[in-house]
From TrEMBL:
Reaction it catalyzes: tRNA(Ala) + L-alanine + ATP = L-alanyl-tRNA(Ala) + AMP + diphosphate
Highest taxon listed in the record's lineage: Bacteria
Keyword Aminoacyl-tRNA synthetase: yes
Lineage: Bacteria, Bacillati, Bacillota, Bacilli, Lactobacillales
Protein's UniProt name: Alanine--tRNA ligase
Positions annotated to bind Zn(2+): H567, H571, C669, H673
SUPFAM superfamilies cross-referenced by the UniProt entry: Class II aaRS and biotin synthetases, Putative anticodon-binding domain of alanyl-tRNA synthetase (AlaRS), ThrRS/AlaRS common domain, Translation proteins
Domain Alanyl-transfer RNA synthetases family profile per the UniProt entry, residue ranges: 4-712
Annotated domain remarks: Consists of three domains; the N-terminal catalytic domain, the editing domain and the C-terminal C-Ala domain. The editing domain removes incorrectly charged amino acids, while the C-Ala domain, along with tRNA(Ala), serves as a bridge to cooperatively bring together the editing and aminoacylation centers thus stimulating deacylation of misacylated tRNAs.
Cell location: Cytoplasm
Tagged with keyword ATP-binding: yes
Co-factor: note: Binds 1 zinc ion per subunit.
UniProt function note: Catalyzes the attachment of alanine to tRNA(Ala) in a two-step reaction: alanine is first activated by ATP to form Ala-AMP and then transferred to the acceptor end of tRNA(Ala). Also edits incorrectly charged Ser-tRNA(Ala) and Gly-tRNA(Ala) via its editing domain.
Organism whose genome encodes this protein: Streptococcus cuniculipharyngis
Length: 872
């Protein structure tokens, strides 16, 4: 077995499958594109689902990749086991209807055991297989695998709901008895016992059935196109090749760990308690790659995952004695380790460091507030005479503030409290169950459509054409091919077409199919890509259409021109965002519609009003400069040399189209555009909003819609001018400012009058002092207009020694407001109000010296006041 670096292992995998005719697919962005079933790209096949379900037919049916992936459903195991990670690389080889079982198993065997490749000892390899899959068993035997190394397992069947499914065969590497202290042996595999001896390194999925949840597995139908989907963990392969005890002692992690040693002054001991080092090394990889791919820390979805990883890392840093921000210092180390295949981390390290450091500094303040929360919690327990910290409260500290259980336990024990470990575990399990329930393994795939996948007739989209004559080559009606159709809906493919199929955020063209006399025979209501790339026209048939006949294809020109204006404006907006708020503001989705454009981009905070103004001005400057919009067809390498920017989520072939707008914008784009920016007319931003953690959205309009938006604003301003009796619109701001000043003066005068009235009323209220059990108190109903006036009463009461306790009740509208204030340690205001509030059908709480509540039953106010004495 050869010693290799991680970069060499990855490259050997790709080189091997390239030598077997596989196309090398680049690693995709960690943030899924157009796939709501996934939070993250979590496997090598996740980005290839469109090939497996037949939605798209690949240029080459043989594909290999090294795909960065994130899974966080087992985050608690990171650092505890030899092989759990949040971010990992999945190496894969895939066949879309090309080779199947014999070749796939043969490839795996050769790559692992051949002296020309990994050269693993055959006697160290074990394979599991689905018991009914005798073909896989026989294939392994043919290759020379000892039958005792073949283990049947019922779980070796891959399915995730409707769609492609099938048996799988897994390959394990035996690390020997040193990793089997109880000498259990092969039962570890046979009984699926968690262990560090037999390490799964490869899974070959034989996708041969269309799974149907409504029938037993034995009745699944064979797929019209059988596929191969495999996955091998790079980190596990590297640990075996490098003879490491765990994945963390490899060149993928050790440089990070060494840097943490330097920062902390502590030493990593692979045989000792080194969990904190491992957690930090693992999590910083996920953070660096995810942020580099456009995800940002936040309070929900992907953002929450990143925030949790960062906070967990910071807390483990504190366990190593690191109290200052330090994670951001590790980004460059991550980038250097992965640079050979993922240069983007180093290229974006300044931005990644900025985001991580800012989040670390924010969390430092959060830790302080969490400590205060714990102290308050312990103080309340002590008052109640309780000596144990409840598991749900421990989990809240852990989940909300990032406190590890160990820290909570240490602080609580110092204060004389014990820990409800069982309650914490139960709360943790509830969260994990919720998390797992929300994850679809691999993401579901659609059923293959054999009819659409079988369309192989060529079709060419003609750029610039708005009307042309073309022969009809395919008709699909009711999901079957036919030679003629005379009514209903149908799908049509022509030899060439002016209709743009929806792609890259640009909506589809609509229009008409006519005969040579100009009669409309069908209305085109949608245009999408067929699996083999042809434009698939969805039409409402008005008269007979026949295959082999020529027709006139006429797009809705007005619709196309409106869409083109918005599409070109999107390119201008993208460039303006880079100039105004930074290069990190990359596209995260777009929609170029008829009436508007929508642009999603990565950014860590709301775009300010001033920034939006600058963006809008910059885009309009490019429009008014009347810049020619040019399109160049070239190869991908030359396009990159031109500085062309790839749009998010798009897959580009060898030949691409580059859209240039002077030297202002250069992007890869297959859509349609205006010939000159002046055609756009005017550009106006109508809305900017957040749509998720680290993702913002701009809605904008152009041309006629922009004019109408300005007209609407003008009409609104005129209406305001009329209301405030301002003769000139230009005077409205000054007039409004003057009116605001008058309102502030009146509010101030009103507040002073209220305060005087409250003081006068207070004189009477504070005279009614009662006493019980040595505690003096005032309990009274007062007439006030808002809850703030109750606080004014309390402020006045605090200034003099009227009583120990104050209870005030006010009926304000249909609500009842209650205030309790206390100057004595014998009465906790928050606890007292919790008893009184339910009397008026309310609830509330507060601090020992002040508490407030709201209720709805004003008829019980007298009962509440009368019960105060009973509670003191």
């Amino acid at each position: 077995m050869k010693y290799m670096t991680s970069a060499q292992v990855r490259q050997m995998w790709l080189d091997y499958f390239a030598s077997k005719g596989h196309a090398v697919e680049p690693s995709a962005n960690l943030v899924p594109v157009n796939d709501p079933t996934l939070l993250w790209i979590n496997s090598g096949v996740a980005t290839l689902k469109k090939y497996f379900d037949g939605t798209v037919i690949p240029d080459n049916p043989r594909i290999t990749n090294a795909q960065k992936s994130i899974r966080t459903n087992d985050i608690e195991n990171v650092g505890k086991t030899a092989r759990h990670h949040t971010m990992f690389e999945m190496l894969g080889n895939f066949s879309i209807g090309d080779y199947f079982r014999d070749e796939a198993i043969g490839f795996a065997f050769e790559l692992l055991t051949s002296p020309d490749w990994f050269d693993f000892p055959l006697d160290k390899l074990y394979m599991t297989y689905y018991p009914d899959d005798k073909d896989s068993y026989n294939r392994w035997i043919e290759l020379g695998v000892d039958p005792s190394h073949l283990i049947p397992l019922e779980d070796n069947f891959w399915e995730i709901g409707a769609g492609p499914s099938g048996p799988d065969t897994e390959i394990f590497f035996d690390r020997g008895p040193d990793f089997d202290p109880e000498n259990i042996g092969i039962r570890l595999l046979e009984e699926d016992i968690e262990n560090d001896r037999y390490i799964e390194i490869w899974n070959v999925v034989l996708s041969q059935f269309n799974a149907d949840p409504s029938v037993p597995r034995s009745e699944y139908k064979e797929l019209p196109t059988k596929n191969i989907d495999t996955g091998a963990g790079l980190e596990r392969l590297v640990s075996i090749v490098q003879g490491a005890k765990t994945n963390f002692e490899t060149d993928l992690f050790m440089p990070i760990i060494r840097e943490v040693e330097q920062i902390s002054g502590k030493t990593y001991d692979q045989d000792g308690d080194n969990m904190s080092f491992k957690v930090i090394a693992d999590h910083i990889r996920s953070l660096a790659f995810a942020i580099g791919d456009g995800a940002l820390p936040g309070n929900e979805g992907r953002g929450y995952v990143l925030r949790r990883l960062l906070r967990r890392s910071v807390m483990h840093g504190r366990r190593l004695g690191i109290t200052e921000p330090f994670l951001y210092k590790l980004v460059v180390i991550v980038g250097q380790i992965m640079e050979s295949y993922y240069p983007e981390v180093l290229a974006k390290h300044d931005f990644i460091e900025k985001i991580i450091k800012r989040e670390e500094e924010t969390f430092a303040r959060t830790i302080d507030s969490g400590s205060v929360h714990l102290e308050q919690l312990l103080a309340e327990l002590k008052e109640k005479g309780q000596s144990q910290l409840d598991g749900k409260d421990i989990f809240k500290l852990y989940d909300t503030y990032g406190f590890p259980v160990e820290l909570t336990e240490e602080l609580a024990e110092d204060a004389g409290f014990s820990i409800d470990h069982d309650g914490f575990k139960a709360a943790m399990k509830e969260q994990q169950d919720r998390a797992r329930a929300s994850v679809v393994k691999g993401g579901s795939m659609g059923m293959q459509n054999e009819t659409l996948a079988g369309i192989v007739e060529p079709s060419r989209f003609v750029y610039g054409a708005e009307t042309l004559t073309s022969q009809l080559s395919v008709i699909v009606a009711d999901n079957e091919r036919t030679e003629m159709v005379s009514e209903g809906q149908a799908l049509l493919v022509f030899e060439q077409t002016p209709f743009y199929a929806e792609m890259g955020g640009q909506v589809a063209d609509h229009g008409w199919i006519k005969n040579n006399q100009g009669d409309v025979l069908a209305k085109v209501i949608d245009t999408q890509k067929a699996p083999n790339g042809q434009a698939l026209h969805t039409v409402e048939v008005l008269a007979s259409l026949a295959v082999g006949t020529e027709y006139v294809l006429d797009i809705d020109k007005t619709r196309r021109h409106r869409v083109m204006k918005n599409h070109t404006a999107t390119h201008l907006l993208h460039a303006a965002l880079h100039h105004v708020i930074g290069e990190h503001a990359t596209q995260a989705g777009s929609l170029n519609e008829v009436e508007f454009l929508r642009f999603d981009f990565t950014h860590f905070e709301a775009v300010t009003a001033e920034e939006l103004r600058r963006i809008e001005e910059e885009v309009n400057e490019q429009i008014w400069n009347a810049i020619p919009v040019r399109t160049v067809e070239t190869d991908i390498d030359r396009a990159k040399a031109m500085g062309a920017m790839a749009l998010f989520g798009e897959k580009y072939g060898k030949d691409v189209r580059v859209v240039t707008i002077g030297d202002y914008s250069v992007e890869l784009c297959g859509g349609t555009h205006v010939g000159n920016t002046a055609e756009i007319g005017v550009f106006k931003i109508v809305k900017e909003e957040g749509i998720g953690s680290g993702t913002r959205r701009i809605l904008a309009v152009t041309s006629r819609e922009a004019f109408l938006a300005y007209r609407e604003q003008e009409d609104s301003l005129k209406a305001v001018a009329t209301t405030i009796k301002s003769p000139q619109i230009k005077d409205v701001p000054n007039k409004v400012a003057s009116l605001q000043e008058q309102v502030r003066d009146l509010q101030k005068e009103n507040a002073e009058l209220k305060e005087k009235a409250a003081a006068a009323q207070a004189g009477d209220v504070f005279k009614n002092v009662q006493e019980v059990n040595g505690i003096s108190y005032i309990a009274s109903q007062v007439a006030v207009s808002d809850a703030g006036a109750l606080r004014t009463f309390a402020d006045n009461w605090k200034q003099k020694d009227y009583s120990d306790v104050l209870v005030l009740v006010a009926a304000i509208g249909d609500k009842v407001n209650v205030l309790v204030a206390s100057k004595t340690d014998q009465v906790h205001a928050g606890n007292l109000i919790k008893v009184l509030a339910p009397i008026v059908s309310g609830r509330g709480g507060g601090k020992p010296d002040m508490a407030m509540a709201g209720g709805t039953d004003s008829s019980a106010i007298e009962q509440l006041l009368a019960s105060v004495a009973d509670q003191l």
